């Protein structure tokens, strides 16, 4: 893993959360992007070398809506940047990690991504991401 690329935070209302985090981080969101396949709207902030990604549901059957119903707002995932996502997926599988995505899929912010199941990482949802 090269670095923590971003931390994902689940929020109910993207407009309100954007305002709150703009104040907290003292910078404006540089990108808002809908990932229709995931039923999610994302908003990104730069903070030093890393980013914060806010995630809000765009429809009731969105995975983020399910997360909010179960756990409420808060930290959702940690994303690590990798050089070769296919290879990393294979290596992690061989080491016993449970991948939610066996193949990388398209994510927000021009990335290919794959998630590792929290039950194999001590309760933390981990995202692997590689710049396209
Ligand atoms: Zn993410």
How would you explain this protein's 3D organization?
The chain is α+β, with helices and mostly antiparallel strands and 132 residues long. Helices cover 23% and strands 39% of the residues. It contains 3 helices and 8 strands; from the N terminus they run E-H-E-E-E-H-E-H-E-E-E. The protein has helices at 14-25, 63-71, 85-94; strands at residues 3-10, 31-35, 40-47, 50-57, 74-81, 105-107, 111-116, 126-131. It has an 8-stranded mixed β-sheet. A hairpin with a 4-residue loop joins strand 2 (31-35) and strand 3 (40-47). The protein is globular and about 40 Å long. The chain binds zinc ion. Zinc ion is lined by residues 6, 8, 53, 77, 79, 127.
SSE inventory with pairings:
Layout: E1 3-10, H1 14-25, E2 31-35, E3 40-47, E4 50-57, H2 63-71, E5 74-81, H3 85-94, E6 105-107, E7 111-116, E8 126-131
Parallel strand pairs: 1-4, 5-8
Antiparallel strand pairs: 1-5, 2-3, 3-4, 6-7, 7-8
Summarize the structure.
This protein is α+β, with helices and mostly antiparallel strands and 132 residues long.
């Amino acid at each position: 893993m090269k670095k923590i690329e971003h931390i994902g935070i689940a929020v109910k209302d993207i407009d309100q959360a954007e305002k709150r985090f703009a104040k907290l981080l003292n910078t404006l969101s540089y990108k808002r992007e809908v990932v229709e396949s995931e039923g999610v709207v994302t908003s990104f902030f730069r903070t030093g070398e890393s980013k914060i990604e806010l995630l809000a549901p765009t429809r009731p059957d969105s995975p983020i809506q399910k997360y909010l119903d179960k756990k409420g707002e808060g930290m959702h995932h940690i994303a690590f940047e990798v050089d070769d996502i296919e290879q990393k997926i294979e290596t992690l599988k061989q080491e016993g990690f449970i991948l939610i995505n066996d193949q990388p899929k398209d994510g927000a912010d021009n990335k290919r991504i794959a998630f590792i199941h929290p039950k194999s990482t001590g309760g933390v949802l981990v995202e692997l991401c590689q710049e396209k």
